[in-house]
Amino acid sequence: MRLQVFAWLSEQVQRHGDVLPRKLLEQGFVSPAGERIVLLGPQGIWKPRSFQLPLSITTSPDSPYDDAFGEDGALHYRYKGTNPLDPVNVRLSEAGRQQVPLVYFHGIVKGKYLVVWPVFIVGEEPARLTFRVMADDAMAMQELQDRAGVSETAEGRRAYVTASVRQRLHQRGFRERVLRAYREQCTICRLKHPELLDAAHIIPDSAEGAVSVANGLSLCKLHHAAYDKMVLGITPDYTVSIRKDVLEEIDGPMLKHGLVGLHGQALTLPSRKQERPNRDWLDRRYSEFLRGA
Ligand SMILES: [Zn+2]
Fold first, then answer.
1. Which residues surround ligand 1, an ion (CB under 5 A)?
2. What is the pLDDT at residue 208?
3. Distance from residue 234's CA to the centre of ligand 1 (Å)
4. How many C-beta neighbours within 10 Å does residue 264 have?
5. pTM of the full predicted structure?
6. Spatial distance between the Cα atoms of 26 and 222, rounded to a whole number of angstroms
7. Domain ranges (residues) in the chain
8. How far is the CA of 113 from the centre of ligand 1 (A)?
9. 190 alpha carbon – ligand 1 mean position (Å)
10. Domain spanning 2-179: which CATH class is it, in words?
11. What band does 147 get if pLDDT is binned at 50, 70 and 90?
């Protein structure tokens, strides 16, 4: 049954990427035995009726991503309530004892969740009312089926995979927040296909303030590449500037309408002021563009 869930999730991730809408997860799928399997419930720890042990754990989108991680690098997942002997908590402990693979959903923005599996309960801190959770990769399932248990290499791998989950949370969170601020359209050409949109950074990811929406631009694939390759620049007063030599080129419709025709045009911006691009950062990037041009 669990393997059917993982197979279904693989399909969804191939289709939609690893951030899935809550609606889809609540709807779930119908198993070959005719049972509807829902992937998450109203409470964080979720067990479908026909399952002995929990299937998934969910973190709501309200708290900062880093709050979910302990100093040991593991995810820290709160007990249901404050009683370790609550049957829900007891069943999740048991899932840990048996090393049953679980699914982890982490809310990125309202109604959208990063999905990670398999994850395992690897310990508990009753004093802090938390479970320790580590993510693993698909190899883990084979290993568990072979009853090899959790080896030292598996522990190292889990630490690595869990750290990458943290990174994904930040990346996907940035994308969702930026695209939402721009109402899912390219700020330059207003193309409205999320599958063709990126959340571009104005200043590098590692710099100060880099994760704020004010460091983001919602750009279609063409305009993202053109921005990164300095074919186009964005001025601190929110207008598009096409590089001079490109402006003088004569070519087909993509060049004409997709680049040259947009020179001097104003960006389509988020309605909320604090989500608009930071002018100092735009200025820094635009100076680079001018030097390159
Ligand atoms: Zn565009």
1. 186, 188-189, 191, 220, 223
2. 66
3. 13
4. 10
5. 0.84
6. 35
7. 2-179, 185-292
8. 26
9. 6
10. mainly beta
11. low
